[in-house]
Amino acid sequence: MIVIRSAELLVRIDPRHGGEILDFVDLRTGRQLLGRPPFSSGEPLAGDLDEETWTAAYRGGWQLLVPNAGNPCTVAGDRHGFHGRGSNDPWRVLTANETSATLSWSGHGLEVERRLSVEEAALAVTTEIRAPNEPAPFLTVEHVSLGLEVLDPEVSIDVPGGVAFELSESDGPPEPPAGATAWPEVLLLDGATERAGRWPLERERSRLLCVTDLREGRVAIRNGARRGGIELSWDLEILPHMWIWHELRRYGGPWRGQAEILVVEPASVPHTLGLATAIEHDQARWLEPGESCSYRLVARALGTTDGDAM
Predict the structure, then answer these.
(1) Nearest-5° angle of CA 11, CA 270, CA 50?
(2) HSE toward the beta carbon, residue 194, CA cutoff 13 A
(3) Domains of the chain with CATH codes
(4) pLDDT in tens, 64-88
(5) Which of 141, 202, 217, 308 could lock onto 65 through a cystine, CB 3.0 to 4.6 A?
């Protein structure tokens, strides 16, 4: 484990398992803001996994999904696992000190380097993706889960513009529908609409949503009573969409109808159908040999005196 910190923020990183961020602790309050599943986790496994195997080792927190995101698929005979093997493979530690760490991973024709640095109450994450030898497609998603310190008794999700629609894990839609509504109104799969910007913990819910046509890459998720929470800001060029999975005691399987978690995910693609579907709809990003791209995301712990809704 790697721990980086400032006087206001502590971040714990596990290079063995996707370089994931397990803890994001606001030291001003002692609150651990990231979410946890309602089950104990198995040992980390490398490779291109199915959803059941990937989920069995899930500990909550924050993962980078790359080079696939969502459903497993096959591209030109190359199998891509659920959420991309970069999210569960071991990462190399290039540098680490009290305030920053740099990690790297390679696979499926890509090299990824990720630098994490804390300053005051913020964590800045810069991700560079390269194709060293051959053309390579990829998706990338920042899979940030939030827990009860933010959700209880009510959560607010403030987004500066954008249109929103519900997603199905099996059917999408792969393209934003024509009738998508302006956030916080969300177009549901059955054609109805729902207001999604605030939600009390006591009301059961299971929604997978996408917000697109964002005016800027920014979302603030706050506890409705204390106003503390977390704000994410990022580059829209690489991550022009945002997924939201909000689960309150409905999802079955290993979640057993007990999950209380909100996953907010700046994303390169507007669905969870995987890389093959994204290529089919001209949504995947391709890098030519020697080409690279990068983006920056900042996560800031919000105190009770930080600004109100956007």
Answers:
(1) 65
(2) 14
(3) 2-302 (2.70.98.10)
(4) 999 999 999 999 999 999 999 999 9
(5) 141
